[in-house]
Design brief:
The protein is mostly helical. Helices cover about 65% and strands about 5% of the residues. β2 and β3 form a beta hairpin.
Length: about 475
């Protein structure tokens, strides 16, 4: 059994076979899931390498514990102490290779609708070849001539891609809020219990938003100073109140009956989260106390104790952050997400049928029948290890090109995030959560963009009454 499994693993690396684990006890895996998982592993691998390159601790440990370190650095022409392999410039080059890798596959997979085409086979297999290609692209970036010009130009490309990645996540967040409310409203038409749940969730969201606003006012402001914090907390709290009033105004309700407080509650919670994140990312303010000693203000007192163990805070925080980035990449690459970004939405009839709450018995029977039929048509392959389900026999279940494009943007976002955006020269992974003005303003602008985007979805039907808008 092990021999057969290893043979299949070799086939997955060098041919079109789907990847799977050699353990029989692992649950079944779909080919589409397996493919996305492998690309995600490549993304994680390069991201870890970027974090290591930005770590002065790792560089010092390598100098102390690796024999012949200086000779090795000279041998690979990386400088006397491998200075070409550390710092923001090295991260820019590695991320350039990863971004080129995903952009190449974005161009290669445009308009693939069948998993049986030659290009689809390449997308779903040949993993060892792809790994070698990725390594070659990341390494080749170190040999680009005129490095200074390249780094300056690539910085602006990275910033543009990073902003676009943030914008896509915000668009999908607003779209998710509208879909959630529409589905629950559809469920309430069948059973009144969902009206109660709708009210309960809405109340919970607003309670969380108000609690966050109050806590930020308590911990991030004081009677003297902290003017930035006071203004931003007040402005963002006022914006949440404003969009909530607009969402339930009669003129908006007449054009969009599904508009309500659930969507604005989701947006308000996210705005409060971004406000908290921005205030945490702001450089600390210091004043002189009565003893002429510098003291830090406008931050919670307990947070100063947390930052004493910088390695623990950085390691845990970085892991959570990049886990969230990876989750955003995978959840925003479904076919529904790519269609939503292009303004393509399901018809109202489909919305009701695909609603989470199918209360009609006939609809339940129909759903079960369709589900069983789909399962019967899927080809299942058992190879001595994990069972693989080939779920794309009739067509692709997600947009290959859009998947690679999102990972291309995520590569640029990781590059800018690891190097502290426009404060790249002093960037270190150990100081990843030390506040910078670049990070602060990027989060605040993201917050305001999210509010404006949601507000536009409310007032667009009023501004353009002859056009059809659907979310």
């Amino acid at each position: 059994t092990c021999v057969f499994c290893l043979a299949f693993q070799l086939a997955c690396c060098c041919s079109t076979a789907a990847c799977s684990l050699c353990c029989k006890c692992c649950p079944k895996i779909k080919q589409s899931t397996s493919t996305r998982f492998m690309y995600a592993l490549y993304f994680i691998l390069v991201t870890i390498i970027c974090c290591v390159m930005m770590s002065t601790t790792v560089a010092n440990e390598m100098k102390m514990h690796i024999p012949f370190y200086k000779q090795m650095c000279k041998g690979i022409q990386a400088g006397e102490m491998c200075e070409k392999l550390v710092g923001y410039s090295a991260v820019y080059k590695v991320c350039f290779g990863m971004a080129c890798f995903f952009f190449l596959f974005f161009l290669f997979t445009i308009k693939i609708n069948s998993s049986k085409s030659c290009r689809a086979y390449i997308h779903n297999g040949f993993w060892l070849v792809k790994l070698i290609l990725l390594a070659a692209m990341c390494s080749g970036a170190f040999f680009i001539p005129d490095q200074d010009t390249f780094l300056n130009a690539w910085r602006y490309v990275g910033a543009t891609g990073g902003f676009l990645f943030i914008a896509i996540q915000l668009i999908l967040l607003v779209e998710f809020a509208h879909k959630w409310n529409k589905n629950w409203t559809a469920g309430a038409n069948h059973k009144q219990m969902w009206n109660g749940l709708l009210a309960l969730v809405t109340l919970t969201l607003y309670s969380v938003a108000v609690a966050a606003l109050v806590l930020m006012a308590l911990f991030y402001t004081r009677s003297e100073g902290c003017m930035y914090n006071k203004i931003l907390i007040g402005v963002n709290g006022g914006l949440c109140l404003f969009v909530s009033l607009v969402a339930i105004s009669p003129c908006v309700q007449n054009r969009q009956p599904h508009s309500g407080l659930l969507q604005s509650g989701v947006i308000s919670c996210y705005v409060m989260y971004l406000t908290f994140s921005a205030l945490s990312s702001k450089p600390p303010e210091t004043i002189l106390d009565e003893n002429n000693q510098n003291i830090t203000i406008c931050v919670p007192e307990f947070s100063q104790g947390l930052h004493r163990d910088e390695n623990l805070v950085t390691g845990l925080g970085t892991t959570i952050l990049f886990g969230c980035i990876l989750y955003s990449c995978l959840t925003s690459t479904t076919r529904a997400s790519s269609e939503a970004l292009r303004g393509i939405y399901a018809t109202p009839e489909t919305e009701v049928i695909s609603c989470c709450f199918q209360f009609s018995l006939n609809l339940q029977k129909l759903s079960c029948f369709l589900s069983l039929t789909a399962d019967a048509e899927e080809h299942i392959e058992t190879r001595g290890g994990q069972t693989v389900i080939y779920d794309e026999k009739k067509g692709t279940v997600y947009s290959y090109a859009y998947f690679h494009f999102v990972f291309f943007l995520a590569s640029l976002y990781v590059m800018m995030t690891v190097t502290h955006w426009f404060h790249y020269e002093s960037a270190q992974i150990e100081k990843f959560f030390t506040g910078t003005w670049s990070t602060f303003w990027i989060k605040m602008v993201s917050c305001w963009f999210c509010v404006c985007l949601y507000l536009w979805t409310l007032i667009a039907p009023l501004c353009c009454p002859t056009r059809e808008f659907s979310v």
